[in-house]
Design goal:
The chain is α/β, with parallel strands linked by helices. The chain is about 35% helix and about 25% strand.
Length: about 500
């Protein structure tokens, strides 16, 4: 089967969060089981291509005020996957991918509409795939256009679309005037299509028009059909519930394994954990702690700083938390509010809360390896990858039981020796504090803790089985759009 991924970020070319890890790892896993996979991405300022070659010098994308002309670059083939980049410097040659800590770029609708349209036009020249697999609102126009403006295009008649929700919190909502600006028809501005409380909602459009919808854990697929987690789109999802599936993200263990990781000071495995202590020392040294007490547990945080991630809970109980015997090491960037919060905590408790504001991939690996626990108190979490990386690195996850965090972490039971981490349900500072205390108590029992670490390290969250689940969805979507005697029969 020929599958075209359309997404706004992908390791190693561009990254703000887990979407990039998924788009970097799932296509090679599909290629490995015999599929023909290509990935379309924007060419950002931060995208480094080894030998970029222009494949299409000019693709026309009409806007109502002017035509824009972008080009398509050959990003070459890695792990059996072909990469294409939509190049339009006025839109993508910027400091960040989506915006600054102060807010989103004001022309994001135009930026990602141009991207989506250029992908459709380019794919007609390169050969249309069987399935477009689109991710998050930035590529939502692809399934929308396929069933509207491009519905009569013979190149796409039998092409189906699968849309993956990585996060309901980001929907791409814009003022109504966006529709004519992008030359989209006004009949999309109805409550059963893209209209949402007076705005145009890209994500909603994708949920209406995609053939199949997936999200990144089973639990999140259920949660988003409720008012608490649906961000207002729970009704749309419920109306399409027969086409909604939760498929857990996998991990690329070529990138995230303490046995091979080149960013960390020493390699280690479940059979020989000695290297982990070297990593702990190295991590603390990185934060200026030169004579560390290595008995003291280190709690790691690596995160986008956003309301989703639950750091307001830490603020609620910080005075009591800092009295515990532990050190927090945090790396993150994002909303100004949370960057300021962590800066403040670091100033108040400089020996207990060590903070680095920024995006630093090498340091993210060092924190996974050098910490004893990994903290994710998320308000909601579609899947979450860091806790799964934590398992592999013997860094015991302490999480809130929501979405993928709940699906991937089993509570530690010291009596039976079963379990991989600690989790709490109530979204309160008290629940967080008591769960951290539980973990700190467990840490003191060294032999129990080693069992707990090893339980996580031997778990297998590789992509193999999830990739096969995606193939089943692609096949169903293809059956939906079978061409009989030149006519598309929708079954
Ligand atoms: P989300 O996609 O919501 O941000 P995930 O847990 O799925 O959460 O994935 C986050 C990914 O982004 C991980 O690979 C993590 O290491 C990385 N990451 C997040 N923040 C940073 C940062 N400040 N520096 C380096 N890597 C980061
Ligand atoms: C999103 C979610 C995160 C998920 C990632 C990859 O950014 O917040 O939970 O792991 O996408 O699917």
């Amino acid at each position: 089967m020929r599958i075209a991924f359309v997404a706004s970020e992908c390791v190693p070319f561009s990254k703000t969060g887990g979407l990039a890890d998924v788009v970097g790892a799932l296509p090679p896993a599909l290629a490995a089981i015999g599929h023909d996979v290509e990935v379309y991405l924007p060419k950002y300022n931060q995208t480094r291509l080894s030998s970029p070659r222009t494949l299409l010098r000019s693709v026309t994308v009409p806007f109502d005020d002017e035509y824009r002309f972008c080009s398509v670059l050959d990003g070459s083939t890695y792990a059996g996957v072909k990469f294409y980049f939509i190049d339009y410097p006025p839109f993508f040659d910027r400091e960040q991918l989506y915006g600054t800590p102060a807010g989103d770029y004001s022309d994001n609708a135009e930026r990602f509409a141009l991207f989506s349209r250029a992908v459709l036009e380019a794919s007609k020249i390169f050969g249309a795939p069987d399935v477009f697999h689109c991710h998050d609102w930035q590529s939502a126009l692809v399934p929308i256009l396929l069933r509207t403006l491009y519905a009569e295009d013979p190149a796409f008649r039998a092409v189906s679309s699968v849309f993956t929700i990585h996060n309901m919190g980001y929907q791409g909502q814009f003022p109504p005037e966006t529709l004519p600006l992008l030359m989209l028809p006004w009949d999309l501005f109805t409550i059963d299509k893209m209209e949402f409380y007076g705005k145009v909602n890209f994500l909603k459009g994708a949920l209406v028009f995609a053939d199949f919808i997936t999200t990144v854990s089973r639990k999140y697929s259920q949660e988003i059909q409720t008012a608490e987690y649906g961000f207002g789109l729970e009704g749309v999802l419920r109306s399409r519930s027969a086409t909604v599936t939760g498929i857990l993200n996998g991990v690329d263990y070529n990138v995230w394994s303490p046995q091979t990781d080149t960013f960390i000071k020493a390699r280690y495995s479940p059979d020989d954990l000695s290297g982990k202590l070297v990593c702990k020392q190295d991590l603390l040294a990185d934060f200026g702690v030169t004579t560390p007490d290595l008995q003291l547990p280190v709690i790691g945080i690596v995160s986008r700083f956003a309301a989703q991630k639950g750091f307001d809970l830490i603020a609620q109980v910080i005075d009591r938390l800092v009295r515990e015997d532990m050190v927090i090491v945090a790396l993150g960037t994002g909303d100004k509010e949370y960057e300021d919060l962590f800066r403040r905590l670091n100033q108040q408790f400089p020996r207990k809360i060590l903070v680095r504001i920024g995006f630093d991939n090498a340091l993210a690996h060092k924190i996974e390896a050098g910490s004893d626990m990994f903290l994710m108190p998320s308000r909601y979490e579609p899947c979450g990858l860091n806790q799964i990386y934590g398992l592999k690195y013997g860094t015991v996850p302490v999480v809130r039981a929501t979405g993928g965090l709940d699906d991937t972490i089993e509570p530690w039971d010291p009596r039976s020796g079963h379990g991989t981490g600690f989790k709490f349900s109530d979204y309160t500072g008290e629940a967080l504090l008591s769960t951290i205390r539980q973990a700190l108590t467990a840490f003191k029992d060294r032999s129990g803790w080693h069992t707990l670490m090893r339980n996580g390290m031997v778990k297998d969250f590789s992509w193999t089985s999830s990739a096969r689940e995606y193939v089943r969805i692609y096949e169903k979507s293809r059956q939906l759009r079978t061409v009989h005697n030149g006519e598309v029969v929708t079954v």
